[in-house]
Amino acid sequence: MTMVAAAITISLDGYITGPNDGPGNGLGDGGERLHYWVFGGPWTYESEPKGEATGADKEYLDEGMTGVGAVVIGRGMYEAADAWGGENPFGVPLFVVTHHPDDAPSEGGFSFVDGLDEAITQARRAAGDMDISIGGGADVIRQALRAGHVDELAISIAPVILGGGKRLFDGFEQTMNLEHKALLQSPFATHITYRLAR
Amino acid sequence: MTMVAAAITISLDGYITGPNDGPGNGLGDGGERLHYWVFGGPWTYESEPKGEATGADKEYLDEGMTGVGAVVIGRGMYEAADAWGGENPFGVPLFVVTHHPDDAPSEGGFSFVDGLDEAITQARRAAGDMDISIGGGADVIRQALRAGHVDELAISIAPVILGGGKRLFDGFEQTMNLEHKALLQSPFATHITYRLAR
Description:
homodimer; alpha/beta
């Protein structure tokens, strides 16, 4: 039975980026602190991240990809990651939600799909009995929550107050009950995995 | 050395109340879920909470009051709690931040103080070498963070998305680095205690 999990990192005040995010400053001013956990410690856009996740952060990442047979992300995340240099890095089929599927590159293993529901449908087909991971950004996760696609929501809370930026739950007006499934903490993040209560 | 700790409960989407909070509905629509952990499980404003915190929740509450020599809260919280029936329930001096200190009742052990800074000053005097706990609401905690009074910030995250209400960090535009100090989880909340990095 395919399980759909969404995962994203926020600050304690609920932001997925600091202020003034954009090209070359994808996580916004001071937003690097959100992803210290991804790279094993402090980094900045000036000096580029070099390390890798370790300890509880690595455990969380590894568990998040176990059993995953397809990944769905938004176009914004694809662009923010600079298309990972032109090659799908996930090792499984990757579906990019976009209003402009014709923009898809002919190589690199990226499937551009118009609309989240269609992306989930194609991801289910690709994943077979395996699971689907929704990697963000926030808009795709909000859409997936609203449409009832999400079985698990994994939130990494970085120990920082950003004071501005883009909020994960901006404009989200539904109420949902959650259940705790897993909990991990490193010096750089508290990873809480929730099940959506049905 | 007196340590100042602030503690409050939020939903995963950052709200300290659901929509339409007010008299008789202090935590807003559906906001009871924020405080399931306080009362050992589900309750509603219709049926009144009856239980007590257990397990990790009780441990968190007990640790939060250990070494505390004075408590500071906002007038809103005092009113929302209906003045605890007229008697300071904390067992240590309690300072209520208000613009109207003349409203103070003559009995019950409540000290009404005009302004947060003055309340902290009086609480430090009362606490001696012991610690100070800031119990909320959100406005008092935001003021205390802005003024640099807070050494520790303890956030209980209830496993619920409320979709509306009052946000803890509403209008808070400063950035602050935090460090993990403690972590506890029950079925009803994830309690993360942060140190403010200096």
